[in-house]
Write a structure and sequence with these properties.
Elements (H helix, E strand, L loop, with lengths): L1 E5 L5 H8 L3 E6 L8 E3 L12 E4 L8 H5 L3 H15 L5 E7 L3 H4 L5 E3 L12 E6 L17 E2 L6 E2 L11 H6 L3 H11 L3
Parallel strand pairs: 1-2, 1-4, 2-3, 4-5
Antiparallel strand pairs: 5-7, 6-7, 8-9
Helix pairs in contact: 1-6
Length: 192
């Protein structure tokens, strides 16, 4: 299969598909030194005869929290980009994003998964919008991590991914796909 990993800078999902023999390409505006990485605007490559696209559009302007820090124009740009990916002329599409506004602006996600369903203890609700793809089946259930902190006033629970050090690229770390999820995507969606 020819697989496009849209907005995937890390290459984790791309490499999972390549390991199973697929012609998988990541595409992101950030450069990476990998022979199967396209540096540039993914919208220019949507018509390149793909069998499957898994897209990871930037979530900063699509999450509820991120919208408070953005202008209306920035939010609109994020929604338009998401919709261009969703409406691409590609037979099978999965779009991954955290919980946010696309559940009401577009439609509810087909599925919400967590890393602890795929062998990682972290809690991170991840929405999947699917076109001509089955729901992703959990592959290795593990006990989810306990909260690192519970606010006594609000009851809000915080987990390890909420407490990354300030000197690291938080966005890049938080957006990286867990290897167990990447492997499940390749094994379950790479069979058409």
């Amino acid at each position: 299969m020819r697989v496009l990993l849209a907005c995937e800078e890390s290459g984790v999902v791309r490499d999972a598909f390549i390991a199973l023999g697929h012609d998988a390409w990541s595409c992101d505006i950030l450069p990476r030194s990998h022979p199967k990485h396209i540096t540039g605007d993914v919208l220019a490559h949507l018509g390149d005869d793909w069998d499957l696209m898994i897209a990871f559009p930037p979530c900063t302007r699509l999450t509820t929290r991120g919208r408070y820090r953005a202008t209306a124009e920035q939010c609109g740009d994020g929604e338009r980009f998401f919709m261009e990916l969703a409406s691409a002329d590609i037979p099978r599409i999965a779009i991954e994003n955290p919980k946010g506004v696309m559940s009401t602006r577009f439609r509810r996600p087909d599925q919400i998964i967590h890393p602890w369903q795929f062998g990682h203890r972290e809690r991170k609700a991840t929405c999947l919008w699917l076109k001509n793809l089955p729901l992703l089946k959990p592959t290795r259930l593990v006990d989810p991590e306990e909260p690192v902190h519970i606010d006594r006033t609000t009851g809000k629970r915080r987990y390890s991914l909420d407490y990354l050090p300030g000197n690291v690229d938080r966005g890049r770390i938080r957006s990286r796909t867990f290897t167990g999820i990447a492997r499940a995507m390749a094994e379950q969606w790479g069979v058409f």
